[in-house]
Amino acid sequence: MKGRKKSKKYLLFAGLFIILTTGCNTINSNDGKTDSNTPISKNAFKLNTIVTITIYDSRDESLLDGALAVCDEYEQLYSRTLETSELYKLNNGLLENVNNNKSSWYVSDKLADILDKGLYYSKLTGGAFDITVEPVTSLWDFPAENPVVPAPAVIKEAVTRVGYKNLSLEGNTVTFKKDQMGIDLGAIAKGYIADRIKEYLVEQGVKSAMINLGGNVLCVGGKPAGDAFKVGIQKPFADRNEVAAIMEIKDLSVVSSGVYERYFIKDNTLYHHILDPSTGYSYDNGIISTTIISKKSVDGDGLSTSCFALGLEEGMELINSLEDTNAVFITEDYVLHYSEGFFDHIQVTETE
Asked: What burial letters (b/e) apply to 331-352, b meaning 16+ CB within 10 Å?
């Protein structure tokens, strides 16, 4: 089946992110006990976002704490800004050197594993997605109260320190082939962590759950009765309860990347957080957002950014070449573009 295009016009600047369309209550207000017919849920601010874990087939609330503890563990590994994290120490040359080589460091298995995945997508896109973009991303502060555009000369210099080909990973040894390089895992870490949370829950016997890391949604199975979870694509800049479409999802990941996530406007120009490693500025290729449906959340995370960076034609070509992967792109003309075979695998209902 060939990909279809459907046009939706919105009054607001179009963006895309995922919301869960099911409610969650943990305590019965009448007796203070957990209602056996109600999912248990817990949320917390972690990974610079709201993390929500919902379990449908267990009343054991310690599992929620255990899932959130997985977030804490990996944040201590992958945070670019947390000074106690392993990645921060790597970027600042604070880890143990390899054979006194000041450009090579030993890293843990868990950091090496995600670096390997990040390099895979860097190579797959020819650097359009690049985990060594940290010298550039560190210049931009999109959530700031009064964000500023970095000086062109500063951006130009930072770009010279970006390039995945100058990063070597051999086993647990990381080598920077240029001075003052750095790694940013922001485009892939949440997906990787979501997969680890799912592994934890499954190991504990959970068969029905929803993991939501600030819009990165990963389903464990379906609902206890066998129904699919309903995952909504929210209308851009609208109330969180307003959705543009609702998908039925079982045991899959749904991840999106879009210009709406972190941005500011200066001199009538919109600057967003998805940066082109080759220029140091926001991508401007006609794409507003990408949503990836895949088995593993780390792949959805990596592909959502990769496809955004590649643009509609190359991004869709990449998705159509992959098995068990589907996508929805929104272009700046507000057209929704679906990957080949999307409707054969995903049931979706668009709303008015």
From this structure: beeebbbbbbebeeebebeeee
